């Protein structure tokens, strides 16, 4: 006679994870929780439950407790954010920025509460290492953008400051977007931030020769139906009404 157990097939063998696999599993569980809850609202019991393990096992891998786990999880998220601006060096600059912003804003959308807690510095588990991690993301984003502009080590202070100012604006806009109930729609926010970049670049070019050269080279790759072309057609009628300034 066939028993219920045998008819259901053999019981799956327990799969023991390697040390690295288990560590990654715990980091993924923590990231999932930190994505939608402020770090201070997440306990090690929560992480253990999400990963399907015991609290002592979490401590075995992260003896520093929640602070250590948060720092490691934040580092993993930072690595993902750093990749957002890594875009092939081809095509119009505005298209490259739009693609990078799609990834960046997509991350913000997915990790809304955790992103807010991270950038606003409101977490009780914030440490000098977490602050350094966030700054590292900003520096990496700046270097990637300068690479898109064709300058890295040769970037002067005006151009470098302009890029860093824009990154700060993107962060601020992301936080305000979350505070405003994720309005306007992400594509509109992305296009607006691309316009901001073009406007900042152009304004800086007016007083900085290096930025002027970079701007000419970037605009030469743009098309009339691209972001820069659309922005120019929208801005010119407004500027034409200020002809008396000339």
Give a concise summary.
The chain has 12 helices and no strands.
Descriptive report:
The chain has 246 residues and is mainly α. Helix content is 70%, strand content 0%. The protein has helices spanning 4-7, 19-36, 44-51, 55-61, 65-82, 93-110, 112-120, 128-148, 157-179, 186-205, 209-220, 227-240.
As a whole number of angstroms, the C-alpha radius of gyration is 24 Å
Indicate the structural class.
Answer: mainly alpha
Uncertain runs with pLDDT below 50, 5 residues or more?
A: 1-14
Shape label: elongated
Protein name: TetR family transcriptional regulator
InterPro entries: DesT_TetR_C (IPR054129), Homeodomain-like_sf (IPR009057), HTH-type_TetR-like_transc_reg (IPR050109), HTH_TetR (IPR001647)
GO molecular function: DNA-binding transcription factor activity; transcription cis-regulatory region binding
Domain HTH tetR-type: 20-80
């Amino acid at each position: 006679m066939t028993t219920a157990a045998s008819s259901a097939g053999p019981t799956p063998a327990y799969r023991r994870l390697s040390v690295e696999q288990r560590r990654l599993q715990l980091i993924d569980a923590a990231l999932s929780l930190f994505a939608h809850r402020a770090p201070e609202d997440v306990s090690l019991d929560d992480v253990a439950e999400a990963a399907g393990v015991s609290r002592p096992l979490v401590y075995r891998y992260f003896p520093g407790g929640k602070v250590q786990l948060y720092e490691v999880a934040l580092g993993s998220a930072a690595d993902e954010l750093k990749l957002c601006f890594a875009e092939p060096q081809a095509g119009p600059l505005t298209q490259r920025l739009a693609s990078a912003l799609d990834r960046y804003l997509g991350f913000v959308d997915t990790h809304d509460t955790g992103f807010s807690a991270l950038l606003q510095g409101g977490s009780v588990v914030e440490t000098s290492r977490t602050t350094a991690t966030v700054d590292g993301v900003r520096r990496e984003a700046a270097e990637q953008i300068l690479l898109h502009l064709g300058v890295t080590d040769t970037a002067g202070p005006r151009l470098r400051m302009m890029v860093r100012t824009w990154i700060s604006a993107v962060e601020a806009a992301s936080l305000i977007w979350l505070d405003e109930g994720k309005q306007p729609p992400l594509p509109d926010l992305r296009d607006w931030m691309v316009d901001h970049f073009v406007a900042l670049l152009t304004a800086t070019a007016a007083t900085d020769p290096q930025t002027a050269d970079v701007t000419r080279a970037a605009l030469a790759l743009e098309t009339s139906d691209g972001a820069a072309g659309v922005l120019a057609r929208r801005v010119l009628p407004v500027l034409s009404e200020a002809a008396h300034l000339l």
